[in-house]
Amino acid sequence: MSVWKLVKLNFGRNLAHFGEVGIGLEETSDRVRSDTLFSAWVSSYARLFGKKAVEELLQLFPTDKQPQGIAPFRISSTFIYREIDEDTIYYLPRPLKFPINYPENDLAFFKVYKKLNYLPLETWQRWYQGIGFTTDDAEELENYIPGKTKGRLATAGVFDYSKACKIEQLPKIAIDRNIRATNIYHIGFVQFDWEKNPAGLYFLLELSLEGEKLADKLEAALHLLGEEGIGGERSSGAGRFEVKWSELPETWQSLVKFSRGTYHSLMSLYWDLSITTDFLDKASYEIQERGGWIGESQLRRQMVRMFSEGSVFSAPPQGKLVDVKPQEFKKHSIYRNGIGLSIPVKVQE
Known about the structure:
Radius of gyration: 21 Å
Distance between the termini: 30 Å
Structural class: alpha+beta
Number of strands: 16
Number of helices: 10
Shape: globular
Strand content: 25-35%
Helix content: 10-25%
Order of helices and strands: EHHEEEHEHHHEEEHHEHEHEEEEEE
């Protein structure tokens, strides 16, 4: 029996820079993926409780060398939430399979549908755990006009994802240490709406019975991470957030405990060494390369290819931690989180 939590990260007026493999400093993502969140969170855990405590924590997770472990907790990637009046709209990654009742003759609206990478919880649950896609949905997508469309999808916030934040490039000055020459460059920052319709990021946390014993420590470490910030440019104050750690609301409870699902849609990144062809049979997925630098050195972590959020499998993806330490780095292991967190869904066969 597991315990679920819903964790909201409120950035307020603070800017944030979330780097991704393949994009330069001039760009930024609008959210943090599960492996990055895990690494930053565990680092805060180590600073708060010491080296021995974090080693004991990591030993509980399954790895490629110790596959028999049971993960004390699983986390989703972060996704955007948006507060409208007294309601909160949570956006979830659209599964990479069509919902039930999705029509074959979709040429009139497929381009609009394909751009919906994230769906409000209400629509996501209706399409993938409820009655599925309807003729009214098809008509609304077919007649979609930005800013003018009215209907059930528009009311749910399907077309409003981009309103939650804005991404801008800000100038920075680099100074050469030797000749003191200056050079201007630009860095991309994301800022979530903090005025009329406050927005931020949220993620799901699933605790095992063993992990539930660590809940207070994990929450404390996350508060410390919020004070220090997540992502790049933290020395400039970027990435700081306030944490709201709460029980899973009733709507979410029915979502994660859905019993009539025939597939499982990823809410996190996922990696495993022992994936079989049977597991991939009837799956729909995308692959994401994950890399980056080691914070305490000028060395790069080993590159790993992982299944991305929204990938759909016929069985729950479990996953492992993978050691991405480069050979020349000798201090300690460096893990990337490939532990999967998924939600049951009904999809078009």
